[in-house]
Structures are given as C-alpha cells and as structure tokens.
Design brief:
Keywords: Glycosyltransferase, Metal-binding, Transferase. The protein is built from 13 helices and 10 strands. The protein has about 290 residues and is an alpha/beta fold. The protein has one domain: Spore Coat Polysaccharide Biosynthesis Protein SpsA, Chain A (Alpha-Beta Complex), CATH 3.90.550. Strands 3-2-1-4-7-6-8 form a 7-stranded mixed sheet, sandwiched between helices. It has a 3-stranded mixed sheet with strand order 5-10-9.
C-alpha cells in the first residue's frame, strides 16, 4: 500500500459543508482512503456540523484530527502581532496555516494544505509524493498574480516584483522541517508599515517569506475559477477561489452539478438554508 497522505484544512463553522465536500471528493478519488489523515484546523463547531464532518471517517475509513483553534488561543495571541492590512477584514482562520509548526505533530515531515472551496478530481498521490527538489513549498502560480501583487494601475511595491513568480496558497505541498523554522513575524518586520498595509493577507506573507523557495507545480493541480468550458482541461483540482461558489444557486462554475452531489442533497440544502438565515440576520443588524 502507498504512503499515508497528511492533509491540512482550516475553516470555521460557516464553512462546514464545503469542507465536508472537499474531504469527500478526496476520499472518493483515493485508492484506499484509510491512508488519508485530515488535520482539521477549525474554529468552534456546532455539534451537528462536527458530526457531519466526522462522518467522513466513519464512511471512508479516513483518519480525522480535529484541532480547535479557539480552544488553543493561537489565532488571537499571534495575529495581534501581525501587520494591519487595509483590505476588508477576513475571519482570522485564514492565518491558521501560518502556525502549522505549532499545531501539528512534530514527527510529520510533509503536509498538503488545501482550502475548503476545492473539488479534488483525482488521486493525490502524484502531487503528494513529488520530488520537491529541496524547496520548502510546492504550489501553482496565481493566475492574476500581477493584479494581486500590485493592485490598481499595477503600482510598484517594495515586497514583490512582477518579474518574479507569485503563488496561490490554496493548494500547497509543504516541507514541514523548513516550514517550522520560519519566523513570519521576524521576516515581515523587515518591511515598512506602509508596505505591510498593502499585503493580501497570509498569501502575501507566505510568498514574501519563502521567496525563491517555492517550486512551481502544473496548473492542473490548482485550476482556479474554472467555468464549464474549462472542464475539457480535466483538472486534477478545481479551486473555486473567487466569489462564484458552486453552492450559489446563480453561479456558473465548472462541475457545479457534480459538486452539489459531493456535498450530498441533504447537506447542500441545509447549508443553503443556513446561509440564507445568516444573510437575513446581517440585513437586520444593518437596519
């Protein structure tokens, strides 16, 4: 039997169903899913949502390691020392992947980090077992990297050059020995506050701190924002990283129908109802 595959995901209670769908897609496309071990970095979950995700272990034999970030207090303590960013505020869970060295078993040598808005369509063994050639991270280039790096009018920045590669952090194969040695706060302290304020959350931080140490991977392992016409490319991993998500009724994205059934009809409709309730509550607060 092939090696065990260590997978890390980070999410909050509002993303429980997409996380379930991503995990299920991996199990369905992996020979012997009992080889999979999911390290689930999460904010506090409702018992009902926790039970739904735990069903992956029961149904497919995968190993699940639930890690409650709120209970450990890491996000609050550590993020307080990070630079203030001008972009709209995101849930602090987006920073959880910066602290893998503190959260995972020190014996783990390699992990595959995956965002929760992902559909895995083939076995992950070729990606997970690839030769990283001494690099700390292996990832796919960000398709719109020039705009992500420089923003409006492609303004020059201190931290990045558009002549250098810039990678999406939603799918990353990570050498944990090198990753544990990274002190993100110390590396970022080299930059002036005005530059740090322009950062695109943790993705900029990872790209800056590991410049020259990230290996480029074929785009089929992280095809972003694919539409139905892109299904012909037969991507290994589809990443719904922009706003049109496959659980939105109005969205036009690749493999939308299949994704719905990954989530299962039961969880799909439950999740849509929950999202509507949260949306209405948000409107009432604004009113």
């Amino acid at each position: 039997m092939s090696q065990q595959i260590e997978i890390v995901m980070a999410f909050d209670d509002a993303f429980w169903a997409p996380t379930y769908a991503t995990m299920r897609s991996i199990c369905l496309t992996t020979p012997h899913p009992e080889r999979l071990r999911f390290h689930l970095l999460h904010r506090t979950l409702t018992p009902e949502h926790h039970a739904a995700i735990a069903g992956i272990g029961r149904d497919y034999g995968a190993q699940l390691d639930f890690i409650d970030i709120d209970a450990r207090g890491i996000l609050t303590d550590r993020i307080a020392g990070f630079p203030k960013i001008k972009l709209r505020r995101l849930n602090p869970i987006v920073y959880a992947r910066l602290f893998l060295g503190d959260l995972l078993d020190p014996d783990i040598a390699r992990v595959l980090y995956l965002d929760s808005d992902i559909f895995v369509r083939t076995a992950l063994d070729p990606l997970y077992g690839m030769d990283m050639a001494g690099h700390a991270i292996a990832a796919v280039l960000q398709p719109d990297r020039m705009h992500v790096i420089a923003g409006k009018d492609l303004r020059a920045r201190t931290a990045f050059s558009m002549a250098q590669p810039y990678f999406n952090a939603g799918v990353m194969l990570i050498d944990m020995a090198q990753y544990r040695q990274m002190d993100f706060a110390a590396e970022l302290a080299q930059l002036p506050p005005a530059e740090l304020a322009l950062f695109y959350y943790d993705q900029d931080m990872i790209n800056f701190c590991f410049q020259g140490r990230i290996m480029e991977v074929d785009p089929r392992w992280n095809l972003q924002n694919a539409e139905p016409a892109h299904e012909v490319f037969n991507p290994a991993i589809v990443h719904y990283s922009a706003n049109p998500k496959p659980w939105f009724a109005w969205s036009r994205v690749a493999f939308k129908r299949t994704y719905r059934h990954l989530m299962t009809n039961e969880y799909y409709y439950r999740y849509r109802c929950e999202r509507m309730v949260r949306l209405v509550r948000g409107w009432l607060k604004l009113a």
